[in-house]
From TrEMBL:
This is Parvulin-like PPIase. Residues 193-290 form the PpiC domain. The keyword Signal applies. InterPro entries: OMP_Chaperone_SurA, PPIase_dom_sf, PPIase_PpiC, SurA_N, Trigger_fact/SurA_dom_sf. One of its GO terms (molecular function) is isomerase activity. Residues 1-27 form the signal peptide. It comes from Pelagerythrobacter marinus. Gene3D superfamilies: 3.10.50.40, Porin chaperone SurA, peptide-binding domain (1.10.4030.10). Keywords: Chaperone, Isomerase, Periplasm, Rotamase, Signal. The keyword Signal applies.
Length: 442
């Protein structure tokens, strides 16, 4: 799979309305009778309600059905969309291709076009970051039903848009030193308070389509619980402004959120998904990515020296035999008090020892982290595992606690404010390009 993972490609797939359904023709009974149309009438051409030819001519540039299907193939490589969401995805991709076309045309009109050599260089760089040559990525794209041309079109639009923003937007964004100082002062005042890093998927609803939107939200949650990538689904379906960032709100204080969201988030643990729940204007799905204390070192950045002591079970072992082996193992490791004794005790009970120095606490499975935080050097975690995977403990042999990083710097805060303002003006700029365009839909 391409490491690029199409995250940049999917960034434009935001604000998709889930409640929309394909247009359908409904023959009225009275009209059918008057026209003598048989009840079992069927069209002579192949009919597939999930496929529509959606093409447009944007200021003279044609967007074809092939363009849409190849871009859809890229999306499907990252997200397993259920059939009922495929048509909505096609229509959003269609709108995204229109925006890309406008971006490329605007750069050319302002005499700063993106050259084929620049596109090819970026394409080769993406392939290299994925450990392959450009020819290998060509084959991978074709194998998934897309094409190199589809990805290169995306690259060209991105480069063109960066060029337009750097000339027409970024130079006119100003952030004063006073603004940055105010933010820094506010952060200092909030030191010791909790922040939540949340991912959101927001679906707008009206009284007329409320139930349809809720059902779509439930289907999304079902896919997420099966392991679908939250950021991909947020880019594809969320109607919040955070969709372009994969639904990531960043670290926020709960009091800055709407009351309904804050109430739910307060009870969540990192890695937990909640929703859909109703908020004014629609439905919300929340995912708690992380949680931290402002201005304080994150304990998960502690560097640990660990020894893993483990036992395995032969195929066909009975529960009684396994239970006796686990009891022997538990008793032996419970009596350990020095890391230097681990290998000796392990040899006595036919266990294996693996040493890992320099392991960051946050890299370990989340359920183990609280137990390791409470350990003193020389102590072990409770046994964990299964007959199939083996049973093991972790022994703490050393810990280097993290130091406070001093918080965000003046330059980091200024850059963040500038980026936020550029992003907002970029949305207005793209809206102006759409309003000025001549688009013919077929």
């Amino acid at each position: 799979m391409i490491e690029f993972r199409f995250s940049r490609l999917l960034a434009g797939l935001a604000a998709l309305t889930l409640s929309g359904t394909p247009l359908a023709l409904h023959a009225q009974t009275a009209a059918s009778s008057a026209l003598d149309i048989p009840e079992d009438a069927s069209l002579l051409q192949e009919s597939d309600p999930n496929v529509r030819t959606a093409t447009a001519v944007v200021n003279g540039t044609v967007i074809t059905r092939t363009d849409i299907e190849q871009r859809l193939a890229l999306l499907l490589a990252s997200a397993n969309l259920p059939p009922e969401q495929m048509q909505a995805a096609r229509m959003r991709i269609f709108r995204n291709l229109i925006d890309e076309t406008l971006q490329i045309q605007a750069a050319e009109a302002q005499e700063m076009p993106v050259t084929d050599q620049e596109v090819e260089a970026r394409y080769v760089d993406i392939a290299r970051r994925n450990g392959q040559e450009a020819a290998g990525m060509d084959e991978a794209l074709r194998a998934m039903g897309s094409s190199p041309a589809s990805l290169k079109r995306q690259i060209r639009a991105e480069l063109a848009w960066q060029r337009l923003l750097s000339r027409n937007v970024a130079p006119f964004v100003n952030v004063s030193a006073e603004e940055v100082k105010e933010v820094l002062a506010r952060l200092e005042a909030d030191r010791g308070k909790e922040e939540y890093r949340l991912g959101e998927i927001y679906l707008a609803a009206t009284p007329a389509n409320r139930e349809a939107v809720r059902q779509n939200a439930l289907r999304i949650v079902e896919q997420l619980r099966r392991g679908a990538d939250f950021s991909v689904y947020a880019r594809q379906f969320s109607e919040a402004t955070t969709a372009a960032n994969g639904g990531d709100l960043g670290f926020v204080r709960l009091e800055t959120l709407p009351a309904e969201m804050a109430t739910v988030a307060r009870e969540m643990q990192p890695g937990q998904l909640v929703g859909p729940f109703e908020i004014p204007g629609g439905f919300e799905i929340l995912y708690l990515i992380d949680k931290r204390t402002i201005g304080m070192p994150d304990p998960r950045n502690a560097i640990l020296s660990l020894k893993q002591i483990s036992i395995t079970f032969p195929p066909g072992v009975s529960e009684a035999q396994a239970g006796a082996r686990v009891e022997q193992f538990t008793t032996a490791v419970r009596n350990l008090s020095r890391c230097d004794d681990a290998e000796r005790v392990a040899a006595e009970i036919d266990a294996e020892v693996v040493t890992n120095n320099g392991m960051r606490l946050g890299q370990l499975p989340e359920p183990l982290q609280p137990a390791l935080l409470e350990l003193q050097v020389g102590q072990t975690t409770p046994p964990f595992g299964s007959i199939e995977e083996g049973v093991r403990v972790l022994m703490l042999c050393g810990r280097q606690d993290p130091q406070a990083d001093g918080g965000p710097t003046f330059d980091r805060i200024m850059a963040q404010i500038e980026d936020d303002r550029i992003a907002k003006r970029a949305q207005s700029y793209l809206r102006d390009l759409r309003n000025d365009a001549y688009i013919e839909y077929n």
